[in-house]
Amino acid sequence: MTNDTMITVQQTARPDGFPTPGDFAFVESPVPAPEPGTALVENLQWSVDPYHREAMDSDLLWTLNSPMEGRTLGRVLDSRDPSLRPGDLVLHRKGWRTHSLVSRGEVRPVPDFGPGVPLAAHLSILGGTGLSAYVGLTRIARLQPGEDLFVSAAAGGVGTAAGRIARLLGAGRLVGSAGSARKVAYLTEEIGFDAAFDYHEGPVTELLAKAAPEGLDAVLDGVGGAHLEASIASLREYGRIAWVGAVAQYHSLSTPPPAPRNLFDLVGKSIRLEGFLVRNHMDAQEELYDLAVPHLRSGALPLDVTEAKGFEHFVDAFLGMLSGENLGKMLVTA
Ligand SMILES: NC(=O)c1ccc[n+]([C@@H]2O[C@H](COP(=O)([O-])OP(=O)(O)OC[C@H]3O[C@@H](n4cnc5c(N)ncnc54)[C@H](OP(=O)(O)O)[C@@H]3O)[C@@H](O)[C@H]2O)c1
Question: 1, 97, 244, 248: which one has the fewest Cβ atoms less than 10 Å from its Cβ?
Fold first, then answer.
């Protein structure tokens, strides 16, 4: 590859179950020159996300043998729009490629919060990942100080952000689930969870009941299926579930797990179950900055990020995230 070469990751096949590297190709082409009203961005950091797995099954979302999309941070190299100057750092969605041509409406400047706020914060705790956690806790679950919270997929991007934000919001007992002993230890030793369990070690309902013997007030669930059923079982009256995702079923969307068998307990316990999409809550971004940036600056809010270094590791990072190799947010960096 030369400096004049751009690489685009393209999906070449629809997977049956868990995707493989053979479902993707790295396609080379010349770096494009900006047209009037556009800028050429050299991408530096990319987010790989569970929803990309859903997009892989959809003709509407991801066309085969075409560039894909994903949250990305890059630097303007060349521009034919006076509002986008060479050197500017921008956030955009034209990811899965080394370079992107963008127009003004497609980018957002990276806010400069000064020392203590590394670039990686913008695609993790301060980006869509942290915002999902913040919105789930504050707007959907409406977590109050002292309330007891369960977070599933707790050692991932949204989960670690939720744990750290819940502590800043004054949560009571904080319980998390994750897929390995290493992750469970990270939750209790590094993030401040009071209890955590590996969901492989038994029925989730039993594991959660043991970790939260007095019950729960709120849940942020990113797993679905058995985790959602366990959440309903452990919640007290007037509990709230912010349902952010269902990563346990993204490889088999046509045959999802049975709905939680205790769904009717929502009625008996007056529980509110509410799904949400972070993109409908972008107005909470400034609130998140106000909460998180001072703690990032002071060092009280460490970043939980797994970095895959080198664009050539893009597909491995994506598949690794789906299989749980990440601790915190999985980012690809140039
Ligand atoms: N609604 C929204 O707007 C929105 C926005 C962002 C994210 N989300 C959702 O939030 C959830 C977390 O996303 P993220 O970006 O933070 O990803 P992540 O948690 O950093 O990565 C995915 C994690 O899912 C876990 N996982 C994979 N298969 C699983 C299974 N069968 N059962 C339980 N856990 C499994 C793995 O960790 P383990 O090792 O622990 O298994 C893996 O690390 C996902 O459901 C995602 O779709 C929703």
Answer: 1
